[in-house]
Automatic annotation (TrEMBL):
Belongs to the ABC transporter superfamily. One of its GO terms (molecular function) is ATP binding. Coiled coil: none annotated. The keyword Nucleotide-binding applies. InterPro entries: AAA+_ATPase (IPR003593), ABC_transporter-like_ATP-bd (IPR003439), P-loop_NTPase (IPR027417). It comes from Collimonas arenae. The lineage of its organism: Bacteria, Pseudomonadati, Pseudomonadota, Betaproteobacteria, Burkholderiales. This is ABC transporter family protein. Keywords: ATP-binding, Cell membrane, Membrane, Nucleotide-binding, Transport. Residues 2-232 form the ABC transporter domain. Pfam families: ABC_tran (PF00005).
Length: 321
């Protein structure tokens, strides 16, 4: 859905992006992460066709963003980190203005406003002026403006900053809903736990370079998918690893006489049967838990690998250099 190759961007006296190449799958939600100044905003602005890079190519849904920016704009929604709303306009007028700016025909605008207001739970606010709205509601109006034309790609720069936990949670629900409708999302944030809730991929930037782009390990729910499990015993047992190693569905990854980390292939019934066997064999099992790697762990691992001077290879679900 988004293809970038050899993207290089310079501010006067400063190279912000170095030869970025990337392919983002349709329907994915990519968490764009990186330290301050890594180039996240610059990358989003380039994809949105708001900046002209020094070199490289960008296409969205097959449309060349640099050659045909106006047509490409119609395919995208962009929420900047510092967005503005017209204070004196009502929510309905803001949405109408955005719809007209995106070139929606006048006859289609009332329905687009109704649909967007419904998606963002703003229906009862349509006649309120923006200066009377809370921060969370203003954020929702700004997102509404970005999605009023049902874009294929939505770019959101720090969309949850300044929101309370409840508003963040409802935003996460909205992003999942947009993804379910087939939209492709690229979302930047420094709060990785929040991105974790809905992201399918991670794009880590550092000093204008792609550190890593990869699919995140989420429980696919498929019975044959391998899960990372950890078993912890109440007291050490030298036979723990030997017993696990004898199981054909287990691949041990680490641990000691009290714990074992392993990959398990089987459904919940097979997992329950394994647990029963281990207890039956005299192991004092205190817990058996799922060890999903979260976004924070993925990001920190990627940074550590970079700092150790190693190179990452493109991962499943996308590619990057
Ligand atoms: N207008 C500008 N002129 C010169 N340099 C700039 C300009 N805007 C950004 N930069 C520099 O380009 C680099 C990338 O900035 P960018 O805003 O894309 O990073 P970011 O990852 O979004 O950072 P943050 O997390 O702090 O928002 C930084 O070193 C920044 O100082």
């Amino acid at each position: 859905m988004i293809k970038i190759s050899g993207l290089t961007f310079d501010y006067p006296g400063h190279r912000a992006l170095h030869q970025v190449s990337l392919q983002v799958e349709q329907g994915s939600v990519t968490a764009l992460v990186g330290s301050n100044g890594a180039g996240k905003t610059t990358l989003m602005r380039c994809i949105a066709g708001l900046e002209t890079p020094l070199a490289g190519a960008i296409s969205v849904a097959g449309m060349d963003v640099l050659e045909r920016p106006r047509e490409a704009h119609r395919l995208m929604g962009y929420l900047s980190d510092f967005y503005g709303l017209y204070q004196a306009l009502t929510v309905s007028q803001c949405l109408e203005y955005a719809a007209a700016a995106q070139g929606l025909p006048a006859v289609a605008i009332p329905q687009a406003i109704r649909t967007t207001a419904q998606q963002l739970a703003l229906t009862d606010r349509l006649q309120q002026t923006c200066d009377k709205l809370s921060r969370g509601l203003r954020q929702r109006v700004a997102i509404g403006q970005a999605i009023i034309h049902a874009p294929k790609v939505l770019l959101l720069d720090e969309p949850a900053s300044g929101l309370d936990p409840e508003a963040r949670s409802s935003l996460a629900g909205l992003f999942r809903q947009l993804q379910a409708s087939g939209m492709t999302l690229l979302v930047s944030s420094h709060i990785l736990a929040e991105l974790d809730e809905y992201s399918t991929h991670m794009l880590a930037l550092r000093d204008g370079r792609v550190l890593e782009y990869r699919a995140l390990k989420h429980d696919s729910g498929h019975p044959s998918a391998r899960k990372s499990l950890r078993i912890v015993l109440a007291q050490a047992n030298a036979g723990l690893h030997a017993q696990l190693a004898a199981e054909p569905t287990v691949q041990i990854e680490g641990g000691d006489e009290r714990t074992a980390d392993f990959l398990f292939s089987g459904d919940e019934h097979a997992q329950a049967a394994l647990l029963a066997r281990l207890i039956g064999n005299g192991l004092a099992v205190a817990s058996l838990s799922d060890q999903k790697e979260n976004l924070q762990q993925s990001y920190l691992r990627s940074v550590a690998t970079y700092e150790n001077g190693q190179q990452h290879l493109p991962a499943t679900g996308g590619s990057a250099t």
